[in-house]
Amino acid sequence: MSRVLITGATGFLGSNLARRCVHEGFETHVLTRKASNKWRINDILPDLIQHEADLLEYDRLVKILRETKPEVIMHLAAYGTYPTTQKDVDKMIDTNFIGSTNLTRAAESVNYSCFINVGSSSEYGMKSSPMTETDLLEPMNLYGATKAASTLFLQTVARATGKPIVTARPFSIYGYYEEPIRLIPTAIWHCLRSRNLELTSGTRSMDFIFVEDVVEALMRLIDTSGICGQIVNLGTGRSHTVREVVEKIRSITHSNIDLLWGKLPMRDFTPDVWVANTAKIQELLKWKPKHDLDSGLRKTIEWMKDNSGLYDSLKSLG
C-alpha cells in the first residue's frame, strides 16, 4: 500500500482524487485547515487520515511530512480558481506561491517517488492556437500569475535536485462535486428544477474535460518515470462553446426552460478560444480522455440527480 499526501482534498478536483486514492487502497493523508468546508468529503472522512495545517505553517508541514513519510505528494491546494475569489491578492500569493514553496521545501527530507503539482491552464494567457507546454506564459490575471510562479519554482527545484516533480495543467474540468456557481452545475440544476437561466452570449469556447479523465491522468503520472521537471496539459484537445454545452444539457435533461442568452455580461479577459495541445501527454502516458462531452455530461447529470439534496442545500445556487 502506497502512502499519498493530498493538499486541496476538500476542493472539486481534490475530493475526486481522494476518493480514487481510497478506492485504490492507498493510505490517504490529507491536509485540511480548521476553516475547511468538508462537504465534498464528509462521507469518506473515516477513510482519510487528516492533518490540520495551513500551507503557511512551514514548521508544521515539516513535522507532518517527517511523520507520514508519503511516497506520493499530490499538491492541489489553490486559491482564486473562481472569479469571485480573485480579488484577494494576498491570499492567492500566500496559497498558490508561498504555500507551494513551503510544501516543496518541507518535503526535502522525504524520499518520495512522485510529487505532482496541479497547475492551471490560466498560466498560459491568450493564445491564437492550442496551448502547448513550451508556450510563453502570459497570464491575464493574478491567479494565473501566482500559479505560473509556483510551476516555475517547482520546475526549477526538480531540475536542480533531480526530485521527481511534475506539473499537470488541467483545462476546464467539470463533473462530480464541482462548485455550484460554475456553468455546468448551474445549468444542470436549473434544467432539473425547471428554472429559466440567464447567460452570457455563450460564444466563449473552452476545452471541457470530465473529472474522471483528469483523475485517471494524475494516477498514471504516479507510475510514470523519467518525467522529472516536466509539464503536461490535461485536456481533450477539442473546444466547445458555452452555448453548445448548455443546449446539450437542456437536451439530455429533456428540459423546456428558456435559455436567456445575452442577459449576463461577458467577463473581462475572456478569450474566444481556450484549448489544449495534448500531444505531449499522449506520448508520455499513452493517455487520452475516455469521455466525450456528451458522455461526461450524462454522468454528471445522473450524479446531480442522485445528489440533488446536496446541491439544493448549498445556498450559492440561490
Describe the structure.
The structure is a single chain. This protein is of the alpha/beta class and 318 residues long. The chain folds into two domains: 3-173 and 209-234, Rossmann fold, CATH 3.40.50; 179-207 and 239-273 and 292-317, UDP-galactose 4-epimerase, domain 1 (Alpha-Beta Complex), CATH 3.90.25.10. The chain contains ten helices and 13 strands. The chain has helices at residues 12-23, 58-68, 89-106, 142-161, 183-192, 211-222, 242-252, 279-285, 293-306, 308-312; strands at 3-7, 27-32, 49-52, 72-75, 114-118, 165-170, 172-174, 197-198, 205-206, 208-210, 231-234, 240-241, 259-260. Strands 3-2-1-4-5-6-11 form a seven-stranded parallel sheet, with helices on both faces. It has a two-stranded parallel sheet with strand order 7-10. A two-stranded parallel sheet has the order 8-13. Strand 5, helix 4 and strand 6 form a beta-alpha-beta unit. The mean pLDDT is 93.
